[in-house]
Amino acid sequence: MHHPLSSLIDQIVQNAEKRGDLDNLAGAGKPLPAVDRPQDAVLNRIMAEADAKSPVVILRQQILASQERLKTLTAEAARKEEMLVLSELHTKLALEMEAFRKYG
């Protein structure tokens, strides 16, 4: 199937080859790494290179931190406040997980 930008992409690649931009690239001549979900490969690579984390991972880290804080608190008011924070984090995590199940 012909993509509308194929000729432009081919021209850009040919120009880069002529300038030597594609010489001695890291991983040249090696097979591409296997991916579980090819449709997510680019996004996963960008996130890994940027050290980005998904909302689910961030929420789980926040939940663990909140649980640790809760263990150290002795004042009843402070414990209630932290338990509210923890409850809100669990709710957000449940929403993120449901959205992921529905929409991927």
Specify Rg, calculated over alpha carbons.
Answer: 23 Å
Give the structural class.
mainly alpha
Average per-residue pLDDT, rounded, comes to: 89
Number of continuous helical runs? 4
Strand content: under 5%
Distance between the termini: 27 Å
Q: Detail the poorly predicted runs.
A: none
Q: What characterizes the major β-sheet?
A: none
Q: Give the overall silhouette.
A: elongated
**Count of distinct strands:** 0
- Binned, the helix content reads 55-70%
Secondary-structure map with pairings?
Layout lengths: L5 H14 L21 H9 L5 H18 L3 H28 L1
Q: How is this structure best described in words?
A:
- The protein has 4 helices and no strands.
- By secondary structure, it is mainly α.
- It has a domain of 51 residues.
- α3 packs antiparallel against α4.
- The longest helix is centred in the last third of the chain and has 28 residues.
- The model has no long low-confidence stretch (mean pLDDT 89).
